[in-house]
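Pilot study result, target chain (666 residues):
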Amino acid sequence: MEISQVKAELLRLRKEIRRHNKKYYELDAPEISDYEYDKLMTRLKELETAYPEFITPTSPTQLVGGSARREAGKLVAHDVPMLSLQDVFSREEVEDFIKDAIAKLDSSEFVVEEKIDGLSLALRYEGGQFIQAITRGDGHQGEDVTENARVIYDVIKQLVDAPKYLEIRGEVYMTRQNFAATNERQERLGLKTFANPRNCAAGTLRQLDSRIVKERRLSMFVFNLQKVEGVDIQSHVEAYDFMTRNGIKIIHAYKVCKTFEEVWRAIEEIGQRRASLDYDIDGAVVKVNSFAQREQLGATSKFPRWAVAYKYPPDERETILRRIELSVGRTGRITPTAVFDAVSLNGTKVERATLHNQDFIDELDIRIGDTIKVYKSGEIIPRVSGVVVSKRPKDSVPFKIPDTCPVCNHKLEREESAADYRCVNVNCPAQLENHLLNFVGRTAMDIHGLGETSIPKLIAEGFIKTVADVYKLYTRREELLAKKIFGLAKATDKILAAIEESKKNSPAKLLTGLGIFGVGSAAARDLIQHFGGLSELSKATEEELQAVPDIGGITARHVKEFFDDADNLKILDGLKEAGLTMEEEKKVIESAMAGKSFVLTGKLEKFTRDEASKLIIERGGLVKGSVSKNTDYVIAGEKTGSKLSKAEELGIKILSEEDFEKMLAE
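Predicted structure:
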């Protein structure tokens, strides 16, 4: 290999690894699996070993993974550097580590334990009192996340056997059950879901609101004693005994070993049980037990020489893809799932794996009938890694997600600047629960008592099929009591009263609750203010909708499609019949602006676009989004664009900001 090629590959690898480090450690949004990342790092190490003259201090091999961030709190220096562990991938590498340690130490004990896939955290105690929590950051300083750590159940706040000072290091993680619950909540709220439990735990710990941390129920295992004053502890196992007496949750089922054979057997045992754990591990850690011997072995700038992390190879199998099923999430997102001949991965039977979206399918060119490669790498979730093209059936065709919803047959929409398809039909049965939760939510109809507990019961028992059925519940009081949907009579009557009270809400709140794609509370207020109520809004053209400030083309199209749908109009009739407030009296000031059409262009000095639009509407004028022959005035500020040119071509009167102020005064 020529020197120029070596330099070019080193440059490429370092750049790519730095990008993935940022994605993983700082943004909590990795693009590749741990196995793929490890291959990049291994190749970089191989080149730097062969050409040590090209090693640089800033190479990823010389630094701890992430850089410290400031979002969650102030930066704090670590008393003891929080170093990474050297990764090894084979039995031979583990044996070399053990033999080298024994040769240098004459004899030694090793502790083998699970390597939890989470986020490292240091906890500090003074006089037995928990005082501070710091993330690993760049290994030398990390973020202060003390308030978030206080709401993690596994973080002990007061030690029983209190030393003068104690600092311990552990891994914050999320159980698979809590991860599933968090993603379900994100999906229901229309928010981005997390790729895996590790990303979720890392993103959660950096939240500025500790209530979110508490809600997501993070967990923590402690795996190392960093520093202690006032207690004599000589080894890792002694430290674990001390922590256990103080109620600190340590890595369980660790093994103390004296020989390589014992170490390897312990690694294999962890590998065999990892599929049955309720949390993710990404390897097994082998540590020298004695603290004195750890001091003797020392550390590099990045790794301690007294420990290694063995990474299990991905368990990959070939199988036949039989079909691709499409499911509709609570927010309408379409998820394609591969269904294939069952294979055994990490001791579990696997027949299904998510294909994420159309872009993922296109990237791998996955087709029904293909021989696909399925694997698990540290994570419990099976994944499709590729296609064996040489085994592809001759009559195979590329797979495309249909353009209609598999549940309600409504046309699907692809999100702007995203890979996901969504069903935007607010009456789609697959989304009914989510739409109802939105409808009764605080920013919409704000019906206290209806929520995550009662709505699924109401749907399952057939009480509610559309949002209009909420206002028919009072006619079925006895049935509700018989089935104990809300509990006793007092609770039931309280909720029925809240439903009745909600009829007085403004039409803007009702519009928010209808769940039209792109119409949140702010857009709903703007639309109702502009049109005065649902009656005029339902008749508006897309052009008229876009004339409302901050209503773009996509939202306007979805609003128009909603009111063009006969089923939606039927629901609105039901809501009107129930007595909900559908119209809002428009505040109109008599003015020369009444009935005139205005277009705003450029930046105004004394008004925002919204303020100017509101003043025009209050005086009976119309605000349009584009210039046409029917436009009466164009109000031009600074840095105008094509709208001004078109107005001049059509001979439309141009108003300066001063002219606009004079017209307002009239």
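One observation from the pilot: Residues 506 and 579 are 12 Å apart (CA to CA). A full batch analysis is planned for the follow-on phase.
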